[in-house]
Amino acid sequence: MGKVTVMHHLLIISVFLSSVLLYGEAGITSSFIRSEWPAIDIPLDHHVFKVPEGYNAPQQVRITQGDYDGKAVIISWVTPDEPGSSKVYYGAVQGKYELVAEGTYSNYTFYKYKSGFTHHCLVSGLEYDKKYYYKIESGNSSREFWFVTPPEVHPDASYKFGIIGDMGQTFNSLSTLEHYMQSGAQAVLFLGDLSYADRYQYNDVGVRWDSWGRFVERSTAYQPWLWSAGNHEVDYMPYMGEVTPFKNFLQRYTTPYLASKSSSPLWYAIRRASAHIIVLSSYSPFVKYTPQWHWLDEELKRVDREKTPWLIVLMHAPIYNSNEAHFMEGESMRAAFEAWFVEHKVDVIFAGHVHAYERSYRVSNVRYNISSGDRFPVPDKSAPVYITVGDGGNQEGLAARFREPQPDYSAFREASYGHSTLDIKNRTHAIYHWNRNDDGKKVATDEFVLHNQYWGKNIRRRKLKKHHIRSVVVDRIAS
């Protein structure tokens, strides 16, 4: 290709990019089709589910934040045969555990499955930005791990979050987990739908909850995963006599809900580094006058953007979704909470549920009141960016059917497995990536700079720059 032709193509690219970024052309529906492993769960005898050696050895180890501001963790684990000890030995030097905390344990039945003993231990009074080693033991069996506490709550504290949803325990799930662990992120914002054990029946439900706990331990034992619940955590199975919602999830996974004055582990808030993170429950009552509605009203008033400029909300069912799968299932929560999200200038809302990836522009639909007003979402500089990351790899497979034409609010969408990261740099800027799991290679497919709604309002553009467009256009010209 001659120099004149190359320059001509580059000029076309430059003009195209300028028009898109300036005038906000229609979003992109990716045509990428990846080869994927079958959407079936990994066999139970696979090494990723290996049971630790030793009688009654602790397994399914996981940590989550244990307080409001990041100076505590809750360490959880399971002893399969008998209770054993609920103590955690910890310290700043590996092998020298000068401190000890003691937790509690419980077990339960689900149909005829009898669980192991789940331990929860609060380790508090930690120093910020410090590496701690810890040991848990049961009789002659013991295991050792480590974690790093976040920096002190501060508007310019940098921190990198991973975002994963709808994970399951297939080989696609394993690819997502392995790619995430190479990302350098320091904590996971999990968007619900953990094990997909509810796809099984009778005793196999509990067995697959156990296998998933061992599956993710390679990450959850070393850094906090902040949990939210999805529809696959409801586990409503009347044919088995099991009608208590979230029974398996709540017995096994805990959250620091009391620290944020919540009445339920299913909705809560934390502050971590420069972020204020609010977790909502899509499958608990949230309409006006319910406990979750009252709590969110008060929690939003507690947000101090001078200390935590980044306001992030997690939920399972997306409010804005242009996929045929689960279309409009988030509409009731949008009607209940969207006006608050706009009023408080939430930076970004992450959701799962739809097994694909999609990102929106900043839009809102708060002007319509059933009888009058705009009936469609419109650009709104005070609105959040809505991002669906429900592509963790579960056995239900990908949601490949997007609605056409692509709505104006939709910036980018693709049906592939992957995970995201949000790398907060300071009070004004964060770098967001969506990484596609492309046949064993980590690929940054969607990437942009997120300007903070509070501190960056004077320099923020109405619509986010879609940096991935350049590579897309170059690929099209090259092909």
Describe, in plain words, how this protein is organized in 3D:
This protein is 19% helix and 28% strand. The model is unreliable at 1-24 and 458-479 (pLDDT under 50). 46% of the residues are buried. The protein has helices spanning 3-23, 171-181, 203-220, 247-252, 291-302, 331-343, 468-478; strands at 28-29, 59-65, 73-79, 87-91, 99-102, 104-106, 109-110, 113-114, 117-123, 131-138, 141-148, 159-164, 187-190, 225-226, 268-272, 275-279, 310-314, 348-351, 357-360, 363-364, 378-379, 385-389, 410-414, 418-424, 429-438, 441-451. By secondary structure, the protein is of the alpha+beta class. The chain contains seven helices and 26 strands. One of its GO terms (molecular function) is metal ion binding.
Q: Low-confidence segments, ≥5 residues, pLDDT <50?
A: 1-24, 458-479
Q: Give the strand order of the largest sheet, numbering strands 1, 2, ... along the chain.
A: 1-23-19-22-18-17-16-15
**Biggest beta sheet summary:** 8 strands, mixed
DSSP E strands, number:
26
Our measurement of the CA-to-CA distance between the termini, rounded to an integer number of angstroms, reads: 13 Å
Helices and strands: which structural class? alpha+beta
Count of DSSP-assigned helices = 7
Shape type: globular
What's the alpha carbon Rg, rounded to whole Å?
23 Å
Beta-strand percentage?
A: 25-35%
The overall average pLDDT, rounded, is: 90
Helicity level: 10-25%
